[in-house]
Amino acid sequence: MPFPIKEDDILYRHFFTFINDFNHTSVPSLRYEELVIDNKFDDYIECDYWDFTLMAIRKWKLEKELYTALEGSLALYDCDDMAVFIKDAGKVDFVSRNENIILDTLQKYSDFCVKYIKVYAAKMRTKAV
């Protein structure tokens, strides 16, 4: 990241997107419309600070392997529950086993009170030819 900050710096979280745009950096993530998502998630919404959460896992939690597994993921939530869709189906179990790190990061660095996480392999929409 462009400059060091305190872990509790809420301003950085709120200006995360602006700072990344300004510095031409980004955390690659899936877009909702790219996925085929089961209708059981119809009332779920996208997590506003998911990219920031991923960066916190990498930068402050120093969980680089988990960050790599989550790279390009999308998270949806509904009250206590979160669904994380990841690109690499082979890493679903690894991410599930590290759910506690994700929960800890969400509680410490984001605005979510999520208590349960389920991890799914992302099913990508096929593009019309």
Q: Regions with pLDDT < 50 over 5+ consecutive residues?
A: 1-5
Structural class: alpha+beta
| Helix percentage range | 25-40%
Radius of gyration: 15 Å
Largest sheet, if any?
Answer: 4 strands, mixed
Strand residues, percent: 5-15%
- Taking the alpha carbons of the first and last residues, their distance comes to 39 Å
Write down the oligomeric state: single chain
Write out the strand line-up for the largest beta sheet, numbering strands in chain order. 1-2-3-4
Number of strands: 4
Listing every helix as H and every strand as E from the N terminus to the C terminus, the arrangement reads HHEHHEEHHE
Number of helices: 6
Average per-residue pLDDT, rounded, comes to 80
Basic shape? globular
3D structure, described in words:
By secondary structure, this protein is of the alpha+beta class. It is 36% helix and 15% strand. It is built from 6 helices and 4 strands. It has helices at 10-14, 16-23, 50-59, 64-70, 92-97, 99-109, and strands at residues 45-46, 74-78, 81-86, 116-121. It has a 4-stranded mixed sheet. A hairpin with a 2-residue loop joins strand 2 (74-78) and strand 3. The longest helix has 11 residues, at 99-109. The protein is globular and about 35 Å long. The N and C termini lie far apart (39 Å). The model is unreliable at 1-5 (pLDDT under 50).
